[in-house]
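Quick start: what a row looks like.
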Amino acid sequence: MFEFLIATRAQRDKVLARLGLSGLTPNDSKALFSLQPGEGKPMGALASEWTCDASNATWMVDRLEERGLAVRQSVSTDRRVKMVVLTPLGVKTRQKLMEGMFEPPPELMRLDKDDLRSLINALEKLAPPEL
């Protein structure tokens, strides 16, 4: 599975380039995908979700902010907490990125229906539980 993901990276890079996001890293994409439109998440929760320390989460959010995709907002009940929220550009970019990243690579399209069904069934068994 790892070799397949590495071998098909060029397609994902093309999607990023088409969206003008060629400098977006896999972690940046992960960060963008984990933020839901209209909902903020505290920095601490993001660090936990991304299984990284707070300084790494800060760096990832900094990168989203630099691109105008997200902003940090103070919480009125606790100024120490910073919520990360997608900007309107972030919402549009996230949607386009999700659509592009879910385009199947040609290698998958060459599989017959039975092989695709078997692959889907196997991958569903690997899906993480809902958080």
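That is the whole record. Helices lie at 2-7, 9-18, 26-34, 43-49, 54-66, 88-101, 106-109, 113-126. The longest strand covers residues 78-86.
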